[in-house]
Amino acid sequence: MNIYVGNLSKDMKDASLREAFTAYGEVTSASVITDKYSGESRGFGFVQMPKNDEALKAIAGLNGKSIQGRNLKVNEARAREGGFGGANRRF
What we know:
- With 91 residues, this protein is α+β, with helices and mostly antiparallel strands.
- The protein contains 2 helices and 6 strands; from the N terminus they run E-H-E-E-H-E-E-E.
- Strands 2-3-1-6 form a 4-stranded antiparallel beta sheet, with helices on one face. Strands 4-5 form a two-stranded antiparallel sheet.
- The chain is globular.
């Protein structure tokens, strides 16, 4: 399951994000999204967990939990809607 994690500290790194979720089960990947110019965290990231039951426990256990002084927003990631150049684009 792909998990969205929001309201991350600017100091959060991939390893720290992975560590928080590993307490609930196997983590395939953990990525903090960074600004391509400054390299600073954009305040959100994604975690991939292969077992849905472990992922659901992680979501329940970490949503609202304070890590590095920020209360996390954790939920199942949704597919991106809209985007660039699609049928919804108007001139």
